[in-house]
Amino acid sequence: MELRPLTPELTVSPQIRMDDIPALAQAGFRAIVCNRPDGEAADQPTFDDIARAAREAGLEAHFLPVESGKVSDDSAVQFGALMATLPRPVLAYCRTGMRSTTLWALSQAGQRPLHEIISASAGAGYDLKGVVRRIVNGGKTPVEVADASHAVVIVGAGAAGIAVAASLRARAPDLDVALVDPATIHYYQPGWTLVGSGVFQPPATGRTMASVIPPGVTWIQAAVAAFEPERNAIVLDGCRVVRYEQLVVCPGLKLDWGAIEGLTDTLGRHGVTSNYRYDLAPYTWQMVQALQRKGGGKAVFTQPPMPIKCAGAPQKAMYLSADAWRRAGLLANIDIQFCNAGAVLFGVADYVPALMEYVERYGIHLNFGETLTAVDGPRQTATFQRKGADGQPETVQRTFDMLHVVPPQKAPDFIRVSPLADASGWVDIDPTSLTHRQFPNIFALGDAGSSPNAKTAAAARKQAPVVAHNVLALRGQIAGSAQYDGYGSCPLTVEQGRIVLAEFTYGGKVAPSFPQWLINGTRPSRLAWWLKERLMPQLYWQAMLKGREWLAQPAMKD
After folding, report:
1. Minimal CB count within 10 Å: which of 331, 337, 436, 449?
2. Which UniProt keywords are listed (predicted)?
3. Is 94 one of the catalytic residues?
4. Which domains does the chain have, with CATH numbers?
């Protein structure tokens, strides 16, 4: 007997035998549902035999037979109604458990998010990609009609999506390109660090999505529910279908606020803030000022396990806050703790000495190997987990007046449960060509890709021309193969007016864009601050999002 739980209330299994019933009763099951018609196999017990044994063991038994490969909409509705009335937990079975799982999945359509249904089914060992569209359609069989068809479809209209659309149109002005994204506002997220330090105002970091969509590109304002790469199609919410010849996937990543117990209940209150959200970055600056008015206090800054969007951002918030307290003459009265789940201050060793100088200047206490697990806002207490001296997990509680949280981050749910994902949930791509390893007409860039580069806007700026070139090469409109070298950049704002400009490629190789006499990236620079504050926003809005590839021309394969 092979039991495969879907939920705490429902477990599915392959065909059971009468002598399995006592063990099921002992395990706590209270009802059995048979989804296999009698007579499918010569060695199959009839439902009457199973029901008789179930009654003797004190279990309810119900018969809802479904032919293999023919799970109807009506039978899914019946299964859902049956589950609502049966005592729980319930065991449902068929020949392999697949029909029972499909019935449950369809019955849950509209009640649970698609990713929860797919994840639970996959966890039990069942691949439901064949019924994804029905689940998206509320558990009903959709009409097989494509709502739209485009040569190139781009999923995600963030920095990566807009940039690659613009690069495609710059190279092929007549190319039929569509962007799929439900958002109405496009944000310049690198600016939120400066919002959190009082340098930028929030409105300066956002523009309407309609204003940044490249001319001639079709904007499909909808969310993607699922991918059907074998059919060159994506399924939108509401079961609308969009077909493509080439697909570019760049929806960003998911900030998993809910992974930290109590965090969502206290964000924006009790001193708990984060520059990773547009509406919270101003609160960071408010809390910096609040500690100044108070004359001191405890400030805790966190960094979760990698990968995260812009690995330097947790430190940027800390250094700029500390610099504000230094300028106010209060630094000696502020207890600053940096709790980093990782083992080093920064992943590229060349930049660490300069950062350590600021750590020492600001009196920052470094706590490596500490992962934030819970926040009690009213009590202003943060709980961390770390390894003790004996190697066993232990918890540490820290009180705070200000807590800057960077949440754990992962691929979006609809990516993680899709055929495009690798074992870690990211879009599975070759790190140099940015082409999907299984589907050659699919590309990915930006934060959702599996390539091991830093997840920064600077990386997307370099990736976009590579993807644009390789898409057109696949279409036979251009020659050669463009290569991405893993370039990423992290302007580490160590104080107001100075930046350590970290630039590097795969393997942590330092890759400066400017001569050392102009900007030495391993040392704090005023010119680098000017670039961050004045030039980079304009470079973003007026160059990157418009297909102007200044310092971003792709390298070609030999």
Report:
1. 331
2. Transferase
3. no
4. 4-130 (3.90.190.10), 149-253+411-556 (3.50.50.60), 257-407 (3.50.50.60)
